[in-house]
Specification:
34% of the residues lie in helices and 13% in strands. It is an alpha/beta fold and 453 residues long. The structure holds pyridoxal-5'-phosphate. The site of pyridoxal-5'-phosphate has 16 residues, from α4 and α5.
Length: 453
């Protein structure tokens, strides 16, 4: 499909329309958009992000001030947008005028506030563009439907989030005639062999897998995919800031913003980060999966999330620091702990070689309690007796969240699929929170372990 809107870089500046006529010269990306102090500073080119630090990249995103000079941007709470001249409407629909020049049509298409969160997500992941959606699942399903056609084939990791696994196993074959082969992505020969020439268009995996915390060798997998002209789509929900898949060769990075990036366990949201041409194609009025399936993010939600991105780095560091401390101490007590920051984790060295510096090894750890019964007893004590955390699915919350993966978030997978993905029935996944002191929390964990005897 010819991309009529590919000229509309969705990460370009917004400008207030002034005077009687539509400002058709547009353009001019301002680093700071201040209503009272217009600046001509330009954002640094993407290549300036040589030190691979997502925090530095985030600080380089143009800061949007509010309409009245407020330090925070204004929320563009409009579903629809006016023009001064009827001719402008025709040109917008023809794709000649777009959000890069501050021409907006309708908020299921582009919205300035949602676009601003997209700019932050693009900076976080080091991609040319990004656009946010109403959930992680809608980001995943939309991007895969954009990149695959009926009769197409996806090569995916066998260790995936349960919802994604179900989408690929059950929904896509039925609704879209798109099939998936699941492989162990640590076996590069198997990966290579599973690519069907002429049919496979996407390789899909999680940077750090749910719940087994397997780390993907992104550079190697991207090399294999690109040799055969296959696009690499990586779910980085478990490791924002820790890993930058696009910097390691991935073409597209998807997120469930509902987890670490939100941090509040109060919002469901997602994002697709990738080339501007892809984001624009997803917004195409005739062929765009986001435009036509419509999993749109609300501008008020986008604003709230934008305000949380500046402290994402601080939160991630604390999640990771506590997860590492607990993993080390639990291991010293003789427990079966899965944490990629531990030297005995099979992907410890791989992670160290591809992770961004100084963020840590992720905020999730797993404890194998052998049986589902022991896992349930352990979680019951941790929540109801020692107040260590909450029994709940999801992750990235400021409190610790615990779930038994086999009977919850991975229950979409059958026994054999779980075994292949390395999920034992007693595996307790913990998303380590950062409230309270580390020693206070450790005491609660130790007390619960003593209660297991
Ligand atoms: C939660 C999650 C998703 C789905 O995201 P939603 O925001 O719940 O739709 C996808 N991938 C991973 C790894 C997840 O943890």
């Amino acid at each position: 499909m010819a991309d009529a809107r590919s000229g509309n870089l969705p990460h370009a500046s917004s400008r207030k329309r002034s005077g009687a006529a539509d400002d058709l010269d547009g353009g001019g990306e301002d680093f700071y958009k201040h209503p009272k102090k217009p600046s001509t500073l330009m954002p640094p080119p993407t290549s300036a992000w040589g030190d691979h630090d997502p925090a530095a990249a985030l600080a380089s995103v143009r800061h949007e001030f509010g309409e009245h000079g407020g330090v925070n941007m204004s929320i563009e709470a409009s579903a629809t947008f006016t023009v001064m001249e009827p001719e402008t409407m025709r040109r917008m629909f023809a794709g000649e005028l777009g959000p890069d020049r501050d021409f907006f049509i309708y908020s299921r298409h582009f919205n300035p506030t949602v676009l601003n969160l997209g700019r932050q997500m693009a900076a976080l992941e080091g991609t040319e563009a990004a656009y946010c959606t109403s959930s992680g699942m809608s980001a995943i399903s939309s991007v895969l439907m954009q990149l695959c056609s009926s009769g197409g084939h996806i090569l995916a990791s066998q260790s995936l989030y349960g919802g994604t696994h179900a989408l690929l196993t059950h929904f896509f074959p039925r609704a879209c005639n798109i099939t998936t082969t699941f492989v162990d992505i640590r076996d590069f020969d198997k990966v290579r062999d599973a690519i069907v020439q002429g049919r496979t268009t996407v390789m899909y995996f999680e940077a750090m897998s749910n719940p087994t915390l397997m780390v993907a060798n992104i550079p190697k997998l991207a090399e294999i995919a690109h040799e055969k002209g296959v696009m690499v789509v990586v779910d980085n929900t478990f490791a924002p800031m820790v890993l930058s898949p696009a910097r390691l060769g991935a073409d597209v990075v998807v997120h469930s913003i509902s987890k670490f990036i939100s941090g509040g366990a109060d919002i469901i949201a997602g994002a697709v980060c990738g080339p501007a041409s892809l984001v624009n194609s997803m917004m195409d009025l005739q062929q765009g999966a986001l435009m036509l399936l419509g999993p749109t993010m609300n501008a008020k939600v986008a604003f709230e999330l934008s305000e949380r991105i500046p402290h994402l780095g601080l939160r991630i560091k604390e999640h990771c620091c506590r997860a590492l401390a607990f993993a080390q101490r639990l291991k010293a007590l003789g427990l079966k702990v899965v944490y990629p920051g531990l030297e005995d984790h099979p992907d410890h060295e791989l992670l160290a070689s591809i992770a961004n510096k100084d963020y840590g090894s992720g905020g999730i750890l797993c404890i194998d309690m052998e049986t589902e019964e022991r896992a349930n007893k352990f979680m019951h004590i941790l929540q109801n007796d020692t107040q260590f955390g909450f029994m709940a699915v999801s992750l990235g919350y400021y409190e610790t969240l615990m779930s038994c993966s086999g009977s919850s978030t991975s229950s979409e997978m059958n026994e054999e699929e779980q075994r292949l993905a390395g999920i034992s029935p007693g595996l307790v996944r913990m998303s380590i929170g950062f409230v309270g002191t580390l020693e206070q929390r450790w005491e609660q964990l130790e007390k619960a372990l003593a209660g297991m005897k």
